[in-house]
C-alpha cells in the first residue's frame, strides 16, 4: 500500500452553495448523500475510474478546515507512529 490520500472533506457553512461554486469553478459533480439532508455532499472530481473524490460538510466542531483521509495498510500501527512523531489524534477510530 502506498499511503495515498483517498478522500478529502471541505467544511463550509452551506454545502449546497459550495457545491455550486466547485461545479462552476472546476466542473466537479455534486452527489447528495441519502439521509444527510444537505449536511454532507459528495464531490466527484473526475469521471476517470480511481480518481480522488471528496465531500462538502457543514463547518463546526472538529470540522473547521479541510482534512484528508490517507489509505494505510495498518491503522493501529499508523496511529501509533503518528503519536510517536508528535501528532495528535483528532477523532478516535470508530
Low-confidence stretches: none
Number of strands: 5
Number of helices: 2
Radius of gyration: 15 Å
Strand order of the largest sheet: 2-3-4-1-5
Structural class: alpha+beta
Q: Major sheet, described briefly?
A: 5 strands, mixed
Shape: globular
Q: What's the overall average pLDDT, rounded?
A: 91
Q: Bin the strand percentage.
A: 25-35%
Helix % is 10-25%
Could you give the distance between the termini?
A: 22 Å
- H/E element order: EHEEEEH
Overview of the molecule:
This protein is α+β, with helices and mostly antiparallel strands. Helices cover 23% and strands 29% of the residues. The chain is built from 2 helices and 5 strands; from the N terminus they run βαββββα. A 5-stranded mixed beta sheet has the order 2-3-4-1-5, covered by helices on one side. Strand 3 and strand 4 form a beta hairpin.
Task: Please provide a brief summary of the model.
Helices cover 23% and strands 29% of the residues. The chain has a 5-stranded mixed β-sheet, covered by helices on one side.
Task: Chart the SSEs and their pairings.
Layout: E1 5-12, H1 15-26, E2 29-32, E3 40-44, E4 53-58, E5 67-70, H2 75-84
Parallel strand pairs: 1-4
Antiparallel strand pairs: 1-5, 2-3, 3-4
